[in-house]
Each structure stands twice: as C-alpha cells, then as structure tokens.
Design brief:
- The complex is a heterotrimer.
- Chain A is α+β, with helices and mostly antiparallel strands.
- Chain A has nine helices and 17 strands.
- Chain A folds into two domains: 224 residues, P-loop containing nucleotide triphosphate hydrolases (Rossmann fold); 80 residues, OB fold (Dihydrolipoamide Acetyltransferase, E2P) (Beta Barrel), CATH 2.40.50.
- In chain A, the strands form four sheets. Chain A has a six-stranded mixed beta sheet, sandwiched between helices.
- Chain A starts with a strand and ends with a strand.
- The model of chain A has no long low-confidence stretch (mean pLDDT 89).
- Chain C folds into two domains: 142 residues, Periplasmic binding protein-like II (D-Maltodextrin-Binding Protein, domain 2); 110 residues, 3-Layer(aba) Sandwich (D-Maltodextrin-Binding Protein, domain 2).
- In chain C, strands 1, 2, 3, 4, 5, 6, 7, 8, 9 and 10 form a ten-stranded mixed beta sheet that branches.
- In chain C, helix 6 crosses helix 7.
- Classes of the chains: A alpha+beta, B mainly alpha, C alpha/beta.
- Chains in contact: A-B, B-C.
- The interface between B and C is large, with 42 and 46 residues.
Chain lengths: 315, 231, 292
C-alpha cells in the first residue's frame, strides 16, 4: 500500500513544522526518513498515522485519509519513539493490539508466537510490559507494530536509547524482521548507519522540508545541497568559490593527476598496525586520511598535499 | 465497655429479628448513597478526565476549586441545598425538601468534587501518549474510554470509595435536607443521632456498628475489584 | 493535543443534565405535592411519641402525608415566619403571641397541655422538694445545686429562663449550670450523670423514667404549665403554603376522637397519660386543677 502526501503543511503555535508539496512512499518499499533533530520527522509519521491533521493538503494511505476513522487508522501500525504499554503483560499488550484489529483468537496466538520468536521477546512475554529493560521494551514495541502485519508500518527511531550491544544485534535483525512482517515501512532515524543499512529508499528532511527523496544509492550519489551532503557524511571542502563534497575515504596522499588538490595541516597520526590513520584539517575543516603502512609518517604541524579521488561539485 | 457489648448484642438481635424499620433504614441508606455515588461518577469521571488532559485558561483555578470542594464540610452543602429547596426558597415550589431525592442531590454535591479530584489525579498518572497509542491502534471513542478507565482502575475505584465513604457516613446534610423523617428519609447516620439524643445508647451503638459493617462490606468489594491483578 | 478533553467535558455536562432530569422525573412521579404538608414542631413533642401515634390514622384517613420537622421552639417559629412550614405545633405562648401579632401565624387552636417537673437527685441537696413555689425552688438550686439546662432555644429553655428571671437571678452567674444544647432526653441523661437538677417536661421524663435515678422533686405550680397550640402559617404572607392539608391537620387535632386519643396517650405504656386534651376550652381554664 502506498502513502502519498500532497501539498501538506502543518504548523504548531504559529510555527510551520512541515511544508511538503509532494512526497510519496511506494508500496513494498522500506524508506528511511533521515534528518537532524527537530526536522519534523515524528510529525510526518503522526500525519501518516492519522494522529494529526494537516492544515492544508492531504495525506493518503492506500488512497484513504488515515485520520478519517478508526478503520483507516488501522492500515498503519505505528511504533512510537518512546514505547507506551498498557499495565499488563507483554503478551496481553500484543493480544490487545491484535484484538483491536479484529484478529480472531487462534490467529492471535499464532502471530504472537511467531513475532515473539523472531523479535527475541519470548522470554519476557509474561512479564509486565512496563517492567522491561530499555532494550526489551524497544523490541516489544517493535513486536507490537510488526505483529499487526499492517499495510504500512511506521517506526520512530527504532534503535534509539539502547546499549551498543543490543543495538548492534537489533540492527542486524531488523531487515529480516521487516522483510518477514512488514509491507511498506517508513522508519525515522537521525543515524546515518541505520538509514543506509535498513532502507532501500531515503527521504532527507531538514527544517520541515524534503531536500531529496529516492532510492538510497541515488540519494547518496546525488546530494541535493550542502546540508544534505553533510548529513550524508560527505566532507565539504571549499574550492575557490564553490564547494566539493568528498565522501569518506576519498582523500589520497600527494597529487592526483587532474584531481582537485588541497593542503592538509596534520594534527596527528595514529599507528593502527595495518595502516596509519592521519587526522588533520583542510581549510579548517576536519578530515581524516588512511595511509598505507610503511609510508613516511608526517609529523604533527606539518603540511602535506592531498587530492580528492572522488568528489561532487556543489553550489 | 459493657455499653459496647450491649450495642453488639442489640445489633445482632435487631438484625436477626428482621426488624422491618431497621432493614428499611439500612436499605434506604444504601439506595440513597449508592445512587448519589453512581451519579457522582457519571458527572465526575468525565469532568476529571477533561481536567486532567485539557489545557485551557483557568485550569489551575478549576483544579484549586475541586481540591477545595473535596474538603467542603458536608453540613455546609446541606445547608445551602436546604436553603434552595425549602418552601420559602427559590426552588420551594418543587416540593423537594425533606425527600429522598433532595438527599441524593445533596450527597451528589458532596461526592462529586471527590470523584473529580481522584479521577483527575489517576488520569494524570497515566502515560501521556496512551490516548495516541489507542487511536493509532484504531480504537474507537468508546473503546478508548473503556481502556483508559481500566488502566486508571486503581485511581477510579479509589474515587468511588472516597465518594461513597464520604456520603454514607455523613449526617449534617442528610439531617438538614432530609429531615430525618421516620419511614421516609431516616438513614443510619440520622437514626444514630436520634437514638443518641433519646438516650437509647445500645440502639445507637447497634446502628453505628451496622453502619461500620456496611461501609466495610462495600469498600471490601471495591478493593477486591481494584486490586485484581490483570495478567 | 487530542481534542478528547473537550469532548469529555461535554459528556459530563450531559451526565449532569441527565442526573438532574432523573431526579426531577423521580420527584414528579413520587411527589404528593398538594397532599403533603410540613409540620414544624418541637423535639420534645416529637420525642414524646404522640405524633407517631396520631399521624398514621390521620394520614390514612385523609391521604395527607405529614412531614414532621422537629427543631427547637425558636427554630420552629422562625420556619413559620420564613414560610418553610405549613403548620406549627409549639408550646411557648409568650413567643407565639409575637408571631401572631406579626401575622405569620393564624388560626391558632389550643390543643393540649402537659407540665414541667423539676427533677433532681433523690437526696435533694438543695431542698427543692419543700419549696413553696417554682421560683423559690430554682432559687434554692442556684444556691446549692448543679443545674443542667437545654440551651437550645426550646420551649423548655424559655420556661427555665423565665423562672430565673422571676427569681431575679442571671443564669450566667450560676457557677454550676451547664447547657447541653440538645434535646430533653439528652439533657436528662446529662443531669443523671451529674446527679444534678433539671427542668423536664413530664412526657419525656415518664418515657425515660426507668433509666433514670433522678426523680421529680417539684411540680404543680401553674407557672410550670406547658400549653400546646397549633397554628396555620399565614397563606396570605406565604402563598406557597399547602393550605388544605394544613387545615385538615388542624381540624384533625381538635376533633373529639383525636382529643380522646391525646388524653389517653401513654397510659398503657407508662401508667399515666402524658397530656391533657384541651381543645375548645378557654385559655384561662387550662390546668385549673393539675391532678396527678
């Protein structure tokens, strides 16, 4: 089921939070809505879930406005950023959600069993949902959204607030879970790695406006503006009166024969064993460089010549 | 001490003898205070919910008024209601003074601030995003209200117990507004006053014991409901 | 935020409205309106039990439901003045006069009388029993005894205060005088506790006699007569008065059969009647020969 936004504007307290002339999420895709904090990402999800109404324009999920009635809202499963549970066991929370969606008892049992297994919450099914650890709560929250197998699944920062180990594990499991249980997925994140790892499409949202939208690879290869490039992880280097967006690892030592060249002021070099890691600045912008082991190691304070093997011109 | 023992013996004797007047008084107390509590819940729970979740100018003032109302002396409420309903008062032509209905009205006014206050507190203690969660799951209005009530069960049942407890045990308003008429508006508390002033201490004690037992029974039932673990 | 809160407040306003309408429908269905009346009377009248025995036949015969509100004499008379009652049955002729003159009470009828007793400890430390009259009796109590007073604006209290006045004593100067602020029964029990003196109407004393050790020590002085009149609350001043019901009640009180019942009331239970029926007599004839 697809999601389409048309000329949508949303404001709060006189401030415009979102201004989206056109945006669509194709059925079956997993899209990461990526942007800095305060960009309006959660608001976008709330509009799609039918929890808010746009001031102008319309949001349609499978052709229907989600805010219209409970049945329309059931097309969208929404896992909030902060998990909210009823004061019951995890199982009864999942069961409650399924019952609201009109699933009969035997089907409910089966689905809960499956999703609990896959999401790794089997051991805590009978525990009071409000007494889970953060990691367990995030998984249970996710499980509740996935168990519904709704046409559209919304995940708000699904990996936020959990410890590194748990996060790494979930990051690993999520693509498989989404493939198994979700149809169209829209997930919000401010973490680049999550966006690249989890989504086949990407929407860059900055200050309430969509800067770019499209398949992840394309969005990455063609950043629309400097802010977007920075968000995507490019280093922005001034070249004359224009800018170059340089992807990580694209700087090489010495001249590059035709490639743009820069002067790097060395801060320090770290011997990593298999290679050297050089940290410095170019025109005040922090960069890092990988040097093969065995090459002469520049001293801190020295200046060296580097070139950008890959780069994109930006205005 | 022997008075207390005589009171208990008298209580047992009266109950077992099936004394019609006594049973009438007990039933009447239950009906009047029960009805008033139900009505107080009907009015007070939605108000409490609105107060807890709403954001409107003057909200703090209203909350302050509710908290004051919770501590309002019932006898004052009774006096005000009586002044309204008495023959010479503005609502005198309704002929409601010294009736059970008037007592229900007065008790309703006493119980409602308690219900509103407890409900507001219990709703405020719920996770802020709970209504959003229910909406996003596609719950209708009625379903949302029911689920939130279940989640706030602890506080809501406390509200019932507080409201009922306040009015089943109050005597000032019931006396003033009801008139303590034998066979029609005499309830346990006003009967206790009458018998005490007549010097029938064993009977007064017996009535007092019955009031305690009644109150305990109702509250026990509600507490069981409140504390039932939801799996 | 969700628009919920506004919806719920509307819901509760609706609940309040429906609560009110339930109550008013209830009241319309069960109100006997014209067929009921409010009788303001005194606590001692109520406590004597006389009305409990007179009212059921009246209510059955005439279909009039009498709501008896028993308060102190002062309060009962004030109820009449405000129009909060339909009829009044009290026993404080001096005060009643004031309300008759002001037009609040009309159609006054003499109904019955009983009398007051001075009760006290059997040993009678103040020597009340040998006093020549009531005034001297109270004078002796002021000198040597403890007194328990009603202090509740009742007819009994008025009688007590009149006695002090006649004796030239300011009751507030009596060291061992206490006010209970309660009814006759409660006051008698306090007197019992203190083994002190009090002024009690005969009816209440007789009803509680078995539980008391204080005994009647002085009686019979005409000044101790307790005369009961019944009045209508003036319908001209208070149009809301349930006139027919009130009139029916007053007629009932003075009817020969009722008067007979009044004269017999209490004999079976206590060995002597509590009241003397007086309807139809001239005021001056009342209590001419107080025989016990």
């Amino acid at each position: 089921m697809d999601v389409v936004l048309n000329d949508v504007r949303f404001g709060r307290n006189g401030r415009t939070v979102l201004d989206i002339p056109a945006l669509s999420f194709a059925g079956g895709t997993t899209t990461a809505v990526f942007g800095p904090n305060g960009a309006g990402k959660t608001t976008l999800l709330r509009l799609i879930a039918g929890l808010e109404q746009p001031k102008t324009g319309e949001v349609r999920v499978g052709g229907v406005e989600p805010g219209r009635n409970p049945a329309a809202r059931r097309r969208v499963a929404f896992a909030f950023q902060e998990a909210v549970f009823l004061g019951r066991s995890v199982r009864r929370n999942l069961d409650f959600a399924l019952r609201l969606h009109g699933i009969d008892q035997s089907e409910r049992r089966a689905r809960i069993h499956d999703v609990a297994d896959e999401c790794g919450i089997g051991p805590v099914l009978e525990r009071p949902a409000r007494r889970l650890s953060t990691g367990e709560a995030q998984r249970a929250n996710l499980a509740r959204a996935l168990v519904l197998r709704a046409p559209v699944t919304l995940l708000d920062e699904p990996l936020a607030g959990i410890d590194r180990v748990a996060r790494a594990q979930l990051l690993e499991d999520l693509p498989r879970l989404l493939a198994t249980f979700a149809a169209t997925t829209i997930l919000v994140t401010h973490d680049r790695e999550e966006a690249f790892r989890l989504a086949d499409h990407m929407v860059i949202l900055i200050d309430g406006a969509v800067r770019t939208a499209g398949p992840t690879g394309e969005v990455y290869r063609r950043p629309s503006d400097r802010q977007t490039a920075a968000m995507l992880g490019y280093t922005l280097l001034r070249l004359g009166d224009s800018w170059l967006a340089v992807p990580p690892g694209a700087l090489g030592l010495g001249g590059g024969g035709g490639c743009p060249e820069f002067t790097l002021l060395v801060e320090r070099a770290v011997d990593m064993g298999s290679h050297f890691h050089l940290l410095g600045t170019i025109g005040g912008v922090k960069v890092d460089l990988r040097l093969a082991a065995g090459a002469p190691l520049p001293a801190p304070g020295a200046t060296i010549r580097v070139h950008a093997q890959f780069h994109i011109h930006m205005r | 001490m022997s008075d207390l023992a005589r009171g208990m013996a008298e209580a047992a004797r009266l109950l077992l003898s099936g004394d019609r007047e006594l049973y009438g008084i007990i039933l009447r107390s239950l009906m009047i205070s029960g009805l008033a509590t139900l009505l107080a819940m009907g009015v007070g729970v939605p108000l409490g919910y609105g107060l807890a979740r709403g954001r409107f100018p003057g909200r703090t003032l209203v909350l302050g008024a509710v908290n004051t109302g919770m501590g309002m002396p019932p006898v004052v409420v009774g006096l005000v209601v009586w002044l309204l309903l008495t023959r010479s008062g503005p609502l005198g032509s309704l002929d409601l003074v010294y009736t059970k209905q008037a007592m229900v009205a007065a008790q309703l006014l006493i119980a409602t601030p308690l219900v509103v206050g407890f409900t507001a507190a219990s709703i405020q203690a719920l996770p802020v995003q709970l209504p959003d969660l229910l909406r996003s799951l596609g719950a209708g209005r009625a379903q949302t209200l029911w689920t939130i009530s279940r989640e706030a069960r602890l506080g809501l049942l406390a509200a019932v117990m507080a409201g009922f407890g306040a009015i089943i045990s109050e005597v000032g308003a019931s006396m003033t507004v009801g008139g303590n008429l034998r066979g029609s508006t005499r309830v346990l508390t006003t009967a206790i006053v009458t018998e005490t002033s007549r010097g029938n201490l064993p009977l007064a004690l017996a009535l007092g014991l019955m009031l305690l037992v009644l109150s305990f029974a109702v509250n026990l039932l509600l507490t069981v409901l409140q504390q039932r673990r939801v799996g | 935020m969700t628009p919920r809160p506004a919806a719920f407040s509307v819901l509760s306003a609706l609940s309040a409205l429906s609560a009110l309408s339930v109550l008013s429908v209830f009241s319309v269905l069960s109100a006997q309106a014209a067929g009921d009346m409010i009788l303001a009377t005194t606590t001692s009248t109520q406590d004597s039990g006389l009305l409990d025995s007179l009212l059921p036949p009246f209510q059955a015969a005439r279909g009039v439901h009498v709501k008896v509100i028993a308060v102190g004499t002062a309060a009962a008379l004030e109820m009449a003045r405000r129009g909060d009652a339909d009829a009044v049955l009290v026993h404080s002729p001096e005060d009643e006069r004031q309300y008759v003159e002001s037009g609040d009470l009309v159609r006054g009828r003499l109904i019955m009388h009983n009398d007051f007793l001075i009760v006290g400890p059997a040993g009678d430390p103040a020597g009340v029993g040998s006093a020549p009259d009531a005034v001297e009796a109270v004078r002796r109590i002021a000198r040597a005894g403890a007194f328990v007073a009603r202090g509740d604006g009742s007819g009994t209290e008025k009688k007590e205060l009149a006695l002090w006045k006649a004796a030239g004593i300011d009751p507030r100067t009596i060291a061992k005088r206490e006010e209970t602020g309660q009814g006759m029964g409660a006051t008698l029990f306090v007197a019992e506790q203190r083994q002190g003196y009090t002024l009690a109407d005969r009816a209440t004393y007789l009803a509680l006699r078995e539980r008391l050790t204080v005994v009647p020590l002085f009686e019979g002085d005409p000044v101790l007569l307790n005369v009961y009149h019944a009045y209508l609350v003036n319908p001209a001043k208070h149009p809301g008065v349930h006139l027919e019901a009130a009139r029916a009640f007053l007629d009932f009180l003075v009817a020969p059969e009722t008067q007979r019942l009044i004269g017999e009331f209490g004999r079976a239970r206590l060995g002597q009647p509590l009241f003397v029926a007086d309807a139809g007599k001239a005021e001056s004839e009342v209590g001419r020969a107080v025989e016990r």
